[in-house]
């Protein structure tokens, strides 16, 4: 299909529909065969509405369907949206402080070698641990966001108060710091439990941490302990 698309001189609606069909067939709702998923063409009649379709719901449904099929036929390959979602996850979650060039589209950087290494590392240390990175945005969208941020900063300077968006940002920032610290604490306690299995170090850490949170919540972090 891709060869015929390259040979076709049309760059209008037909090319856009073919590109969407090809992308969906390869990354979101493909199957064990190499045939393209032309069923989706019914949803692509109006090209201008493609960007407004609920692609998140479609991808999620595809993953669930693939899971159900795989449970019936576990010897088959797990097809459809799994690889696509894995790449999105790898690109957005920084693991072990590893930094890769952020490029668009994401597929350009995540080749088989990098995917295999990441899977191996996460199997060894645990899935879901890492820092969530900012989403890549098209240039126009990024410029609009920058202008919007500048306008909010000006509004904040004018009235000297935080806007609702600023409050949400600060909450997210604090939550992110807490998440990163909790991940580091989890790694540390795991290391301690392996090196000193019969020690009471972990018990002391948990008690100290709990006491700290209680004192912070009560606003007594600067008060000395009473004898």
TrEMBL record:
Origin superkingdom: Eukaryota
Organism, as annotated: Cuscuta europaea (European dodder)
Output compositional bias ranges, type Acidic residues: 140-158
Q: PANTHER family under this entry?
A: AMINOTRANSFERASE-LIKE PLANT MOBILE DOMAIN-CONTAINING PROTEIN, OS07G0283600 PROTEIN-RELATED
- In its UniProt entry, what is this protein called? Uncharacterized protein
Q: Where is this region: Disordered?
A: 138-161
């Amino acid at each position: 299909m891709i060869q015929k698309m390259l040979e076709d001189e049309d760059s209008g609606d037909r090319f856009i529909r073919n590109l969407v069909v090809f992308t969906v067939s390869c990354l979101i709702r493909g199957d064990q065969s190499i045939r393209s998923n032309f069923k989706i063409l019914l949803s692509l009649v109006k090209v201008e509405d493609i960007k407004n379709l609920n692609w998140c719901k479609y991808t999620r449904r595809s993953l669930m369907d693939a899971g159900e099929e795989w449970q019936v036929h576990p010897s088959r390959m797990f097809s459809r949206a799994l690889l696509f979602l894995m790449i999105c996850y790898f690109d957005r979650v920084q693991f072990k402080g590893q930094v890769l060039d952020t490029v668009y589209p994401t597929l350009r950087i995540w080749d088989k070698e990098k995917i295999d290494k990441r899977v191996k590392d996460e199997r060894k240390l645990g899935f879901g641990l890492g820092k969530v990175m900012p989403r890549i945005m098209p240039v126009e969208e990024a410029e609009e966001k920058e202008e919007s941020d500048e306008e909010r900063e000006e509004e904040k300077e004018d009235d000297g108060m935080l806007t609702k968006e600023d409050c949400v940002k600060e909450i997210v920032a604090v939550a992110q710091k807490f998440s990163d610290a909790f991940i580091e604490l989890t790694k540390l306690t795991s290391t301690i439990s392996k090196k000193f299995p019969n020690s009471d170090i972990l018990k002391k850490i948990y008690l100290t941490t709990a006491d700290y949170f209680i004192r912070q919540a009560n606003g007594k972090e600067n008060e000395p302990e009473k004898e």
